[in-house]
Amino acid sequence: MNKVVHIMPVGLKKDRLLESIRQSGYPIQKVYLVLGKDKKLSGEEETYRIADEIEKTLSVLVEVEKIYVSKLDVYAAALEILSAVKKEIVEGNEILINASDSPRTLCIASYISAQLSGSRIYIAMPLYDNGNEVGISNVIEIPIPPLKRISNDKLTVVKTVQEQGGEVESINKLIDLFEGKTDNQKKYMAQRARMSYHLKGLEEDGLVEMHREGKNVKIKLTELGKAYALMAY
Fold first, then answer.
1. pLDDT of res. 134
2. What is the secondary structure of 163-228 as a DSSP string?
3. What does each C-alpha distance from 205 to 100, 145, 225 come to in angstroms?
4. pLDDT in tens for each of the 233 residues of the chain?
5. How far, in Å, CA of 24 to CA of 18, rounded?
6. Residues 54, 45: Cα–Cα separation, whole Å
7. 3-state helix, strand, coil in the chain (%, to 5)
8. What distance lies between CA 1 and its chain's CA centroid?
9. Nearest residue to 115 via CA among 150, 90, 167
């Protein structure tokens, strides 16, 4: 049976997060609680304590797992969240991201993760009384604008670079990996023109960086490129 999985960054508002689940009306069979890796960051020990309390409350009813991400790096955090997302998608599960109690960096990382994975993201809107937050007024799903479509050939280039550790030392090496080595000069020139076209587009989209080193041009994935590579099927 497929599961509905909620991914929830944990902040300092336990009641808001728990109430957002209740008011959302979404089914829930599994939860990922997202925490920062560095327990020395300001407020992090309290966040860990709150996460333990949330886990104790929810684990009676649903499966709970914790994941630890880089709170100071938006794209690193998005990659770590996407790793969990992809695992669940591969298993045929539906993903919902709850950003109701997300610290700023993780809120942005959650949005990126939702956009790249096609997951849904929702958030609780606070309820105020005389300027003080006294609860939540309602829960809304945040519409995610569609991403610019990247062609299958370009995605294959991105995945090929990722399989080499995120960088390739030259265009020729990338051509060999992508299309196979050839001694036919006419075919090679066509391959090089095609690869240069793909790389130019990927660089314009911010997925790769290219740097000349001697006679070669090194191709390296950006953090956004790594995120695309992770979610490419």
1. 85
2. HTTSEES-HHHHHHHHH-----HHHHHHHHHHHHHHHHHHHHTTSEEEEEETTEEEEEE-HHHHHH
3. 30, 16, 9
4. 789 999 999 999 999 999 999 999 999 999 999 999 988 888 889 999 999 999 999 999 999 999 999 999 999 999 999 999 999 999 999 999 999 999 899 999 999 999 999 999 999 998 999 888 888 999 999 998 877 788 999 999 999 999 999 999 999 999 999 888 888 888 889 999 999 999 999 999 999 999 998 888 999 999 989 999 998 86
5. 10
6. 14
7. 45, 25, 30
8. 25
9. 150
> Do the strands 4-9 and 94-98 form a parallel or antiparallel pair, or are they unpaired?
parallel
CA 154/CA 138 separation, integer angstroms: 41
Domains of the chain in start order, with CATH, are 4-141 (3.40.50.10770), 152-231 (1.10.10.10)
Whose CA is closest to 104, among 73, 129, 82?
Answer: 73
Q: What residues form DSSP beta bridges with 64?
A: 31
CB 192 within 8 A of CB 115: no
Q: H or E segment at 113? A: helix 104-117
Torsion of CA 175, 210, 214, 192, to 10 degrees: 30
Token pair 């391959």 in the structure block, residue: 191
